[in-house]
Amino acid sequence: MNELIKLVLLSNSSQLGFNWIYNREFLKQYSKTNNMLMTKPINKHYEENKPSYNTYEGYEIGENTLQGQIVSCLYNDMINNDLYNEHSYEKLLLNHFLPGGIYKGYVESYGNKLVVKYLNKRLKINNEISLDDDQLVGFVPYVVYKALNKSSSDALKLTNVLTNNEDYKYLFDILDNVNKENIKEVLTRSKLSFKNKILNAIKYEDDTFIKDVHELSCSIDVAFPIIFYLYNKHKSLIEALNENVILGGASGDRAIILALLYHPDKLPKEWDKYI
Questions:
Q1: What's the CA gap between 17 and 42, in Å, rounded?
Q2: What kind and span of H or E run contains 256?
Q3: How far is the C-alpha of 48 from the C-alpha of 86, rounded, in Å?
Q4: Which domain holds residue 125?
Q5: Prediction pTM value
């Protein structure tokens, strides 16, 4: 398997056991005496520590969140298909989200909107659907195109299946150029609408810049300040993943971007069995 895809999928699955738990006090206390990486969701943790959403109930250790699953599917679809395009990607997503599709869990707004758009077209209903998603799922094409040494501008065409938000273009450019030595420089010159949130977050040595549980969601304007805070703070991916899971919320989807930033860093060899 491609090393970047492997790193992304393992990073994503490492967070599964606590993904979408927003009770930060519970997570911090639990981390003091327990390993939190590469575990499976436990119903009790979700039932007793609200707000939380056990979307992946019944999943086993090493399985992926929805975004990790789409990364895997897209990568496998594209390996030997030079003609893959945005229409192919839309079909992949619809195969997940349409009633009776591959994915059986909670469907986010971007999936519902894509289904409604498809049904409107099929039933010839003139009802415009605004595809303006702002979640981390928009980086699935970027991950796969990077793994296959394809351009981020082509990846953006697939991202535009779900959103016309220009900030994805600016974030792709940031990810194309950033490293630990030039974070401030790359962000400062960017046209990203919320770059000041990220620049503020990387000033901190702890997580006190996070004021509200809503800042732990997978919306890009709150996820990227946390991602770059972790990237700026920690020397290794495993260290960043350890703090990321303790922060809570959309930890699994943030982990995908962390893997991109830290690549070609390594994860524990014993995790390879989960690929």
A1: 7
A2: helix 251-262
A3: 42
A4: 3-274
A5: 0.95
